[in-house]
Amino acid sequence: QVQLVESGGGLVQPGGSLRLSCAAPRSIFSNSLMGWYRQAPGKRRELVASVFTGGATNYADSVKGRFTISRDNAKNTVYLQMNSLKPEDTAVYYCNAYYVLFSTTENYWGQGTQVTVSS
Known about the structure:
Blueprint: E1 5-7, E2 10-12, E3 18-23, H1 26-29, E4 32-39, E5 46-51, E6 57-59, E7 67-72, E8 77-82, E9 91-101, E10 104-109, E11 113-117
Parallel strand pairs: 2-11
Antiparallel strand pairs: 1-3, 3-8, 4-5, 4-9, 5-6, 7-8, 9-10, 9-11
C-alpha cells in the first residue's frame, strides 16, 4: 500500500498563510506528476496545482498568484505554499501522485488535510 503522508493543514484567518507538505516513497515520487486537489463540502474534488518531474507547474485560476507548488526531489516531498488565503479556500486538501512508467499508470492519494480559513 503506497502512502502519501500529508501535513500542514489547520485554521488560519483570512489573508493568512499555510504550507502543506506531502512525502511519498522515492520510487513513486521520481516518476510522478505531483498535485494538490481540494474538496469543499458539497462540491466536487478539484485540481488546485500540479508540478511535473521537471518542475513545470500548473494552477487553477482561483489560486494563481496566491499559491505556489514546488517539489524537492531530494526529499521526495511536494509542497503547497498558500498565501492570501480566503474563506472560499476552506476545504480538505489531498495530495496526489500520478505515476507513469512506460505503459504503467497509477493514481495515489493522501489521506487529506483540513484547511479552514475563518475569522
